[in-house]
Target: Adenylate kinase
Amino acid sequence: MKIMKSSNKEKIKENDNKIIFITGTPGTGKTTLANLLESKFSKNYNFQIVKINDLAIENNLIDGVDSDKGYNIVNVQKLDKKLNEVLDSFFNEKDLNDSKLKISIVEGHLSHLCNCENVDKIIVLRLNPKILESRLKSRNYSEYKIHENLEAEALGVCSVEAYQKYGTKVNEIDTSDLSIKEVFKFVEDIIFNKKDFPVGNIDFMKWILGGY
Ligand SMILES: Nc1ncnc2c1ncn2[C@@H]1O[C@H](COP(=O)(O)OP(=O)(O)OP(=O)(O)O)[C@@H](O)[C@H]1O
Model:
């Protein structure tokens, strides 16, 4: 069934066009996964990738910098509006090959804070805080910033926030023992409704209790 509408709220539906958000604590592998999705999907689909941090910076959606934490303070309301414009423009693009499915991947740890009625899946990448710690240390983050991110990962903050907004559309994958190719395979299965990884099955609380 083909429904032609002008907004991603009704996403121009050609069978089953898709909007997928990839989120997770910094360092869990979102960018690596998004790049692999782009290289695998762009041949077979009309493919768009939106890197949410780049979108915020390029469109000057930064309210300031938290100098203690070393973060840009992104205006999420403006980001939300811009993201929906970018999605609308992709799904309305006339030059796309009509015989191919349209897939938009939105990558970044702020993606799940945006409101997108027509998002299909939100995929949260999770990682054992012990492994995350070594990845974040190699980025030369401050001790404070590392600890804050590890705590957020142990508590599953992205999953909880995403679930509060999007409920059962949210999947989470424990990537701790997976190669990036294996992560890709799971994500592909989620995107095409072959597998489901509901929120609530990953528990890194042991890290908080000092068990790792
Ligand atoms: N499945 C994996 N196995 C081993 N290493 C991985 C895996 N996924 C990502 N990495 C490595 O982990 C590091 C962090 O990955 P990446 O930059 O993709 O994280 P991110 O979630 O996008 O971080 P940020 O939110 O800060 O952009 C990179 O060095 C990447 O090569």
